[in-house]
Amino acid sequence: MADQAQPVMAADSGSSSGPAQTNEKTRREFPPKGQPLIHGFNRIGLWSLYMKEVRRFLKVHTQTIWAPAVTTLLFLVIFTVAMGRGDRMVLGVPFATFVAPGLIMMGMMQNAFANSSFSLLAGKIQGTIIDLLMPPLSNAELMIGIVAAAITRAFMVGGALALAMALWPGVQLQAAHPWAILWFALMGATFLSLLGLVASLWAEKFDHNAAVTNFVVAPLSLLSGTFYVISNLSPLFQTISRANPFFYIISGFRFGFLGQSDIGNTNQAVIGAALGLGVLNLMFGWGAYLLLKSGWKLKS
Questions:
Q1: How far apart are CA 227 and CA 76, in angstroms?
Q2: Measured between alpha carbons, how far is 221 from 231 in angstroms, rounded to an integer?
Q3: DSSP string covering 135-193
Q4: CA separation for the pair 160, 176 (Å, rounded)
Q5: Whole-Å CA distances, 231 to 94, 149, 250
Q6: Which of 8, 20, 176, 216 is 20 to 30 Å apart from 98, CA to CA?
C-alpha cells in the first residue's frame, strides 16, 4: 500500500507546483508596477491622438474650414473694391494679386492658433483633460499630435482659400518659388500652433483664449504688411514691422507666389528670413515642451 501511495503523492506534489511556476513566469513577462511597457516612440498612440484631433475639426468642417475661408475671401472683396480701383499696382502686380497671398497666410495662421488652443483648454474646462494626460503618451508626443493636427487644419484652410482666390477675377496666383510657399506656410502654421498650445496652457476660460486672439494674433496679422508694403511707412513703423515675426512669414509666403516681397526679390535675400523662422520655431517649440512637461496650470 505504501508503495502504491508514493506515485500518487508525487503526482499531487507535481500538480501543486504548476500554478507557482505559472505565476513565476507571469512575473518574468510583466515588468514591475510603474515601469513603462512602451519604450521609444509610441507611434500608434501618436497617430491615434492626431486622428482624434483631425476628426474633431472635420466633424464640423463647415465651421472650421469653409467658414474661415469665406470670411477671409470677404477681406479680398472689400479691400479690392476699396483700394484696388484704377488698376492700382503694388510690387509690379495688380493689388488683388498682391494681397491674395497675404490673406491666404493670415487665414492659415489664425486657424492654426484656433485649433491648437482648443483641445487642452476645453479639456480643463469640461473636466476631460484626463483623456489626454492618462494615455501612454510622452509630453513630446502629446505636443506633436496637437501641433500636427493644427498644421493640418491650417493647410486645409489655405488650400480652400488658394482655390477660391485662383478662380477670383483679377487674381493671378503663380508659384514663382514653390520652396518658399511650402516653407513659410509650414513655419507660419507651426509658429501659431505652438502659440495656441501655450495659450491653452495659460488660459483658464475661453475668455482668456479670446483675449490672446483679439489682442495678439489679430493685430500682429493685420499689421504685418498683409495689405501694404512697409516701404510706405515711416522709418519708425518700418522698424516696428520688421520686429514682427508675422511680417517675415507673410512676406516670405508672398515671395513664393510673386517672386517679390518686402524682404527681397531673390532667393538669397529670403533665405535668411527662412532660416531665422526655423530657429525661432525650434526655440519656441522647446519652451512650449518645457511648459507642458512642467504641468503648469494643467496637472496642479
A1: 10
A2: 18
A3: SS--HHHHHHHHHHHHHHHHHHHHHHHHHHHHTSTT-----S-HHHHHHHHHHHHHHHH
A4: 20
A5: 17, 36, 15
A6: 216
User: What residue spans of 232-266 are helical by DSSP H?
Assistant: 235-242, 245-258
**How many CB atoms lie under 10 A from the CB of residue 287?**
12
Of residues 114, 96, 113, 255, the one with CA closest to residue 183: 255
What is the pTM for the complete model shown? 0.85
Instruction: Please tell me the total number of residues recorded for the chain in this structure.
Output: 300
Nearest 5°: the CA angle 131, 133, 135 is 70
Helix (H, G, I), strand (E, B), or coil: what is residue 204?
A: coil
In one-letter notation, the amino acid at residue 31 is P
- At 91-113, the pLDDT tens digits run 888 888 899 999 999 999 999 99
User: Are the beta carbons of 252 and 277 closer than 8 angstroms?
Assistant: yes
d(C-alpha 178, C-alpha 30), whole Å: 51
